[in-house]
């Protein structure tokens, strides 16, 4: 597991995760899985598409989680 990725759900985060928080976690994940901190120009498009897809999937996950004592978030 990438140690740079932090838990984004309450109550671990005192406030709701922002889009920037979610995108940063997605970027760290793609960097870890691909083995590239920054992709070469010929890999940039697929790298960015993966970050976008993981950002969207993470936002959907966080919006749908039911956590005791915290209201369910609305999907963005």
Automatic annotation (TrEMBL):
It comes from the Bacteria. InterPro entries: DUF2277 (IPR018735). This is DUF2277 domain-containing protein. It comes from Streptomyces cinnabarinus.
